[in-house]
Amino acid sequence: RLLRILAGEETTRRTLPDNAILVARNLGPADLLEYPAGALKGLLLEEGSAASHAALVARALEIPCVGRLSGVQDRLSEGDIVIVDGETAEAHLRPRAHVIEAARSRLLIRESLRADIAGLRHLAAITLDGEPITLLSNAGLVSDAAALDATGADGIGLFRTEFQFMVQDKLPGLEAQTALYTQILDAAGDQPVTFRTLDIGGDKVVTFLQGGREENPALGRRSIRLGLDRPPLLRLQLRALLRAARGRELRVMFPLIASVDEFTLAKGLVDAECDWARRRGWALPSILRVGAMIEAPALLWHLEALLAQTDFVSVGTNDLMQYMFAADRTNPSVADRYDTLSPPFLRALAQIHAACAASGTPVSVCGEMAGRPLEAFALIALGFRRLSAPASGIGRVKRMILTLPLARAEKLIAPLLT
Ligand code: PEP
Ligand code: MG
């Protein structure tokens, strides 16, 4: 896309010119939500890596984003033309005419590819040898529910509830939370939705909920730890979820569970909320399933105990990678140093899959890797049959699945584990 540049972080948000690109040092995950839908056509960040939450939100909003452009703010001025290629993670500053021409023809090719993928929307994702794969979508915004139909996803495998908290400056009350969850469930219709409880902390900052500054927020009081330290906060959310799902299926999972005890405690709060609702004569969900995210490596050595308690689990590979390799997912100089397809990570995934198969626990993978065809190929070859990916990855992964000879893939993956 050939676009104009607005330099600086304090752009006047509601008065963007057409085809505006934003340049900033870094953005918080919620900052992009402040711009009118469709107004921003590109994003250049001096910091920020592909797995940072600002990048995740940009991907959800389909805004091409390139990070790690050190010094880019100084090299551009307002009105400059830039090509932002989110797919190759390249930005061309003030390109010459022939570069613009080349970009135009790449765009045309990609658009026809996209049309091709859109044509697969109504096809089931089945491998060449007939194995069906469930392809779900990651979501966090109301607008994502509308995108379900456009992507042809089989449901929402990860709904990031914290986004609602990140876009305002006070706690959303019971009514507001219930209204959002109801809207999402209504939009999904018969398709399943898995709500993840608040995953605040790390780079997902919600100032009105967090205490003081932490030296090392990714390892700090984030996620389920915050919820367990402040039970009324988590209970309010669970109450909203139970209300929104009365008479239908509710799937809830807890983020960053690092010990079985944490899951037991969190599940106890669900039970307490169910009792509370029952005492008041409120209708309950017709089916209630409670799961855990596998994101903390410690769980790998306690899977049997965990799986005995969970109705399902989902592997959050973004965080699992960061903690396994001790590499901050938001720090551009280390985030891409380690590989999801390296033996240790593949073996961790194989181990999780084997434990889930042995205990009969449904398992999905919901990190970004599930939306990239090569990595999705590896996941399926390892045995995973449920993938939850950003909306932008679903069509590409489906195209891969439709041409995948699974039996061969399974043979190919084995040596890679060592
Ligand atoms: C993950 O960690 O892989 C995940 C899906 O959760 P988030 O990216 O929201 O931390
Ligand atoms: Mg995570």
Descriptive terms for the model:
single chain; 418 residues; 14 strands; 41% helix; binds phosphoenolpyruvate; binds magnesium ion
Question: How does this structure look, described?
Answer:
The radius of gyration is 21 Å and the shape is globular. Strand 5 (about 80-85) and strand 6 form a beta hairpin. The two termini are about 40 Å apart. The chain is of the alpha/beta class and about 425 residues long. It has helices at about 55-60, 70-75, 95-120, 140-150, 160-165, 175-190, 225-230, 230-245, 260-280, 305, 315-325, 330-335, 345-360, 375-380, 390-400, 405-415; strands spanning about 1-5, 20-25, 40-45, 65, 80-85, 90-95, 135-140, 155-160, 195, 250-255, 285-295, 310-315, 365, 385-390. It is about 40% helix and about 15% strand. The strands form two sheets. The protein has an eight-stranded parallel sheet with strand order 13-12-11-10-9-8-7-14. It has a six-stranded mixed sheet with strand order 4-3-2-1-5-6. The structure holds phosphoenolpyruvate and magnesium ion (MG).
> How large is the share of residues in beta strands?
15-25%
| pLDDT averaged over residues | 90
Tell me which ligands are bound. Answer: phosphoenolpyruvate, magnesium ion
The biggest beta sheet is recorded as: 8 strands, parallel
Note the overall shape: globular
Low-confidence stretches: 6-11
End-to-end distance: 42 Å
Number of helices: 16
Adjacency order of strands in the biggest sheet: 13-12-11-10-9-8-7-14
Number of strands: 14
Helix-residue proportion: 40-55%
Determine Rg (CA atoms, Å).
Answer: 21 Å
H/E order of the elements? EEEHEHEEHEHEHHEHHEHEHEHHHEHEHH
